[in-house]
Amino acid sequence: MASTKLLVVASRKSVTKSFSTSSASLGRHYKLLIVGSGSGGCAIASKFSRKLGAGHVGIIEPKDDHYYQPWFTLVGGGIKKVEDSGKKMSEVIPRKADWLKTTAEAFDPKNCTVTTATGEEIKYDFLVMACGLQLNYNLIKGLPEGFDKDPMLCSNYDYEYVQKTWPAIQKFKGGNAIFTMPNTPVKCAGAPQKIMYLAEEAWQKSGVRDKSTVMYNTSLSVLFGVKKYAAGLHKVVDSRDIKINYQRNLIEVNTDKREAIFQKLDSPGETQTYKYDFMHITPPMSTPDPVRKSCLVDEAGYVDVDQGTLQHKKYPNIFAIGDCFNAPTSKTAAAAASQSGYLEKNLTAVMNGKPAYVKYDGYTSCPLITGREKCIMAEFNYDSLPLETFPIDQGKERRSMYHVKKDIIPMIYWNMMLK
Known about the structure:
Its cofactor is FAD. Residues 30-146 form the FAD/NAD(P)-binding domain. With 419 residues, the protein is an alpha/beta fold. It is 26% helix and 25% strand. The chain has 10 helices and 22 strands. It has helices spanning 39-52, 71-76, 89-92, 145-149, 162-171, 191-206, 227-239, 289-292, 333-351, 399-417; strands spanning 17-19, 29-35, 57-60, 65-67, 86-88, 98-100, 104-108, 113-116, 121-129, 134-135, 153-154, 175-181, 212-218, 243-245, 248-254, 259-264, 271-275, 278-280, 285-286, 318-320, 364-371, 374-380. Strands 1, 2, 3, 6, 7, 8, 9 and 20 form an 8-stranded mixed β-sheet that branches. A 5-stranded parallel β-sheet has the order 11-18-12-13-14. The two termini are 18 Å apart.
């Protein structure tokens, strides 16, 4: 149930084994192999390394650091420090799991092997895809190099670029401020709006708001996909005179002229150019290239699973969790937290020769920060129906929900979800 997210348990640090193929024997075989150690991957590794014991769970993950990415909105808004947003990967991967510090480059589900960047073929009995999404700034002409050229370009989705956001907000002296939403699924569909509300509030306080036009250029045809929360957000944008330009997809940034070129998705073949004085960019996203090019994905490039059981439609010993699969739910850490319980039960059943039997309902949560001390706590399912935790109207801006987002959920993430 959604309310279980609010339980907090004592934290503990773990010592994790890390291997590279130069020091490890070739031909390793795991009962369970996990690709990716984001929120979903760590949660599943923790559950099954306790069940299966040391040496039976392997995690393929090349990165040294694990970030609590929802924190980046608060960093960009000048509320939190970026250095507080992460921990070393060795602290979050469970001690009984083997950390394979490399990338997965090829998948052979018929022979139950994953080939790594160093050429090692790792065998598995069961595979969990938890590889998340990659950020494709390069699909926008003029990026990513534009971030180095223009101090008024920023993006909360990248550890380096998020550090530009608050300084750019402070430097802004008026003109056009544009916030974008791309024509692909993204991590937390509300995040491109959250930074807009925080920035607009800051400009009100600094006295430049009356000299500014704040625009949300979204590739979507709606402000938010759930009617109840969209209604609350429309009240916010209307009261604060924020202009929404629907079905506008950013395709080019010209930093010399400070121009942004958008596809007009409602008029195929046409573009529209906007002058900008500040722009926050949400990049197009996809599954990592090796996954997108594999036989595990659907036509859109996402791991092809049953949306209820999270089991692969073609390969029954493969499951997925988090942002990388194709079920129609918003991609958030809260969704991965909910999925981990369903996946644990279904994967355990399949390991024991039984069919997957529990059905994930698509629960996800998106705390929509609309300012300092204000938040709409969106919680909903596959059918875009509210699935709320608290006995209040969560479609309204509330200070209490802001502190749940800012203070309580991060503690739950580090001390409960990953463990």
